[in-house]
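Render this sequence as a predicted structure.
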Amino acid sequence: MGVARARQGRLAEAIQNYERALQLKPNNADACYNMGVALVGQGNLLDAIQNYERAIQLKPNYVKALTNLAYLLATSEDAQLRNGARAVTLSEQADELTGSKNPVVLATLAAAYAEEGRYPEAVEAANRAIERAIAQGNSALVRTLELQVTLYKANKPLWKADE
């Protein structure tokens, strides 16, 4: 029910549904993850981070939660929320779990490396993400990643894209 509400853009209702689901089953990693996604949609990044952390605590190899949390920690405009070292750890774990074949995970790894100032590694990870996105026929992701490679080559993290 919450996922359907979220897809309709009814985030407040989706969050209420996830809260109810978590009251009934507090150890539901999917509900924690979906709550995190909805909270990001509302701009509530701190609570989203907490929900992703809980999802990972419940399901340590939860690739989507690992990736989303790593992305927030690497790219948040709020310096208090950013944690590049943790973002690298999480995204490396997700990359290992996916056999280095998921372009979104690789793009997140690139963003995490850039946040840590590891720009050559960021460029390399982003280029691998481009290769995977091309193989999947995802031209929109390819274009986005090409712009990100330009940032990383200029020694800028992803959150500085608008500067």
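Summary. The chain has two domains: 1-60, 61-163. The chain has nine helices and no strands.
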